[in-house]
## 1
Amino acid sequence: MHTVVLESPESLRLVKRPEPTVGGEDVVVRIRATGICGTDVSIFSGKVAVDYPLVLGHEMVGTLESSTSELAPGTRVVVDPNVFCGTCYQCLRGQENVCGRAELMGRDRDGALTDLLAVPARNVYPIPEELDDRIAPLLQVLTTCLHAQRQTQVFPQDSVVVLGLGVSGLLHLQLARARGAHPIIGITRSESKRSLAARLGADLVIDPSDPALKEQVVEATQAQGPDLVVECVGKTETLAQAIDLVRVGGRIIVFGTITEDAGELPFYQLYYKELSLANPRAAKPEDFPTSIGLVAAGTVELDPLVTHTFPLESAEEAIATSSESSSLKVILDHGSVGQ
């Protein structure tokens, strides 16, 4: 089978490997498409330490080559890339997403940039035929956003600000709309992403360089500030901005992964405003069926978020493209490799 292997930082090679064998509770999935994530980019560049060689990729859709107790071969599935143990303290308390022994496919063990992948049977979820392979890898991203929003209450007519309108920010915007939030305000430097956010349900979109940004947010939220701010940039300065914008008694979802070791925050405001912060990490198993249902019902749109598609053998080009400011989700199509 064909596999794209990361042999060292910034060194990918298309090779042939033996097909995986099924053992224990694993099943084999024939991968049809994979999404490129910021984590993949960081691993590729060497910013995230991993053991080499490694097969990247954790956003995937495929078909079952072998059956589970409930699903027949040929069933199209998405895969939860978080392989949890099921027996540790966190797992026994329904927190499989923060399992102390967990391995992430594409980081801690081989991932999706291959023809066939052995995965735990409990990590596969069937998807309806109307969900195209081109968009289905985005379901994994949606599950993490859904998990994040399940960590905080959003009531109808709550005001929501989304800082950063990349893929996750645009998904958070749609989820907030589905929960009845109003107004929903999106903030990004990108004019094209502001336009897309408006089409996907944002009531107001603002360039962060606008000197009247805070005044516009205050006016749109009836002089109170937003009930919820979702930080999707992953920088200390935007977390500080979230603290500054949110209303007294409000909530913040710290969704962007902040890797900085130090930075200035308005700590007194955290106390004075009595803010609640949610710090989500990975999705839970129950987030997958709900996310699939939201997309199947048309409540959340994935297609507008896919900007580029490449064949599997062009994985390096796909990774480079995903780092461009004009791109959103980049998809690798596994169908043409070797043809």
## 2
Amino acid sequence: MGVDKSDMNHHLLLIRDDVDSIRQLQEALRSRGYTVATASKFEFVTDPDFANNFDLIVIDHSEPRIIAMDICAELRQREIEAPIVVLSSRDQVQHRVAVFRAGADDCLIKPVDLDELQVRIESLLKRALRHNKQEISSYEFAGRSVNFGQCELLRNGFRVELSERETRLLRYLVQNRGKTISRSALLQHVWGYHRAPLTRTVDVHILRLRHKIEDDPRDPRFIVTVPGFGYRFDG
């Protein structure tokens, strides 16, 4: 199947108990244009600061160490919204039902055809993109109105221009309002970094946004700092 790699910049996470045994699938997906990371430890992969860095998660169900239902349930409980695809060798209706009830979006029976897996991944990514676009085209809060398409904020009747990066940052915060977002997650989703570099880029842009939306940037009401974790949008 042909792939236009120029249109793909999606980050996938592959979860399996034995990471070495999934290298072939990892390389196959990389060759099709995805950025792919692997992990095996339950506590690690269900950490929101880590899991939030990926656009889609693939879980290779391999009992007894990697139970897809447990991981799906934990990810959803921790409000990880990325689509989840489960790969399983158990071709039983009861098992597939349990996988979906736990929070998976799709389930394929092994051995998996790579073309079919890619089509299903693309379908889930497109659905997530449409959902996100519908939710955040505009937003109003506390006498302020944001038009993300036009990169502008109306505040008490006055127009305030936002840079493209400020717009993307505010959109991501609004989309995840009420949730604490780590700096590394912001760098991945807003700046496109796969690995978070040592930088104060996020803090600088947060400060600029506060000056544009807050009544008192030194005592912010909307973009709140959560010490030791990151930022939360409370608008």
## 3
Amino acid sequence: MWQVFIEPNDVLLFRDGKPFAAGEDHRARSCFPPTPFTMQGVVRAKVLFDSGVSLADYAYGASSAQHLIRKIGTPDKGYGQLRLRGPFVAKRSDDGHITRYFPLPADVAKVGDRPVLVKPLLDRVFIDNRPLEDLHLLWAPTQEPLGETRGWLAEQEFRKYLKGEEFSITEESELLIREPHLGIVLDNERRSTQEEKIYQMEFLRLRKGVGFLLEVDGIEPFRPPKGFLQIGGEARPAYYEVLSSLLPPLPLPNPLPQRVKIVLLTPAWFTGGWRPRGTNWGQFFNGNVRLVSAAVPRAQSIGGAFVDDMRRRGDFQKTVRRFVPAGSVFFFESDSSVAIRGGPFTETPGDEGDFGQIGFGCAVITSW
């Protein structure tokens, strides 16, 4: 495995999953950070252009491109040997130290200006009409009103969160600025503008030193280890650097306690919306577990329009799916010792390449 840090040289555009046609829709929003779909495209493009294989040979699956297809796959035949984890937001300081930032977990609420953790209420102290009787409500031991909070946790603060210690939250504005840009549709035949078709695109201007950390496996590191690539909508330039030493992994309890919670670091997809097929959580563990509670924010739509390969030369809509967003928290309990299987915490639709292979379902485990 190797890690690469990607720092943009310009504003970025990462479209959300909502369809958008300039002039027909007024506003296109950007999601932050980019999804694993975007980052596998960045890696694929870099490897493809560096290989010397022509785009036509790659698109048609020519014999000269077979070694490359085995490495990175094709848009309709999976991802080959490529394995990704992330992307993770990261910031490089002036002395070169890189700090990862993780989305604020959904079990964090606010009492005044102080963050607090909510936990499953195991004792039934009142009667309710919950449709899922086996799940417990989340609560915090306070009589003050709880407020919603958003933001990011720097790695050292995230480690405090995992230990149940006090931590501080980083606001999104400390990492980036959202910049709305106005545009107008051009009439190429008349060589003029269509004044009735004005639209707005939301670009992201990352703060100094802020970029994305990606863990890569299955293929050789980029050569040279430093250089430039293209990323996001409009293929904006970014500087990349393959790290000479790996950043340490987050801690994993060993053995797992009887009460564990899984915090998603990247989005995940499940057959049942926020639950796997047949509510089979056991596929992610060695041993029997039961879901006690969950803190799941609103679903994140990922997908949208993209250009098909060179055989069809047409635009069409990639399937838009609803993902469980990063920061979601799942609380589990077991009667005996269990172990995590070690794979990604996600499922994959039958007509898609393995989502976990390109970075969906990255998670961290701790006790509650």
## 4
Amino acid sequence: MSITPSNMLPLGTTAPNFDLIDVTSDSTVSLENLKGGKGTIIMFICNHCPFVKHVNSTIASMGQQYHGNEISFIAISSNDVKNYSEDSPELMKLNAIENNFNFPYLYDESQQVAKDYNAACTPDFYLFDSELKLIYRGQLDDSRPGNELECDGVDLKNAIDCLTNKRDNTRIQKPSIGCNIKWK
């Protein structure tokens, strides 16, 4: 495991479009079809990373909390499954079921989407507004495996609340920390 910070894509960047397989429905979906009316959260996650395992229940809870509020959650795994078989689409589907994800979990086999988003680690979070302009990128919260801080999603929740209440997010946006994306 290599501890890696996120790259912090510039604010205002337009979300790159994609067409990927949703392992939960076995169908191809696009960002255009999945985007939320008010905002869209794109999360780069995977099955095996301890940093992602640490946040799974929180992201599942947030997906439930914001469901119906025109905030769309989208999870993407871009890891090399040849060398990291735990991240295979079949196991991604089981992981989504076990963690009660109510959002699509997409498989980026070519890794092009991760490259387009300049994603570096799992987990890595991006919040886009209704026009798919980046307004937040970085960490879920300050909690990490073993640091004894509660995983509550406070940083991402604040960004969502600022978006939905039309307020500027004046908090410092901190990079996420996690396992590096497993490139081919």
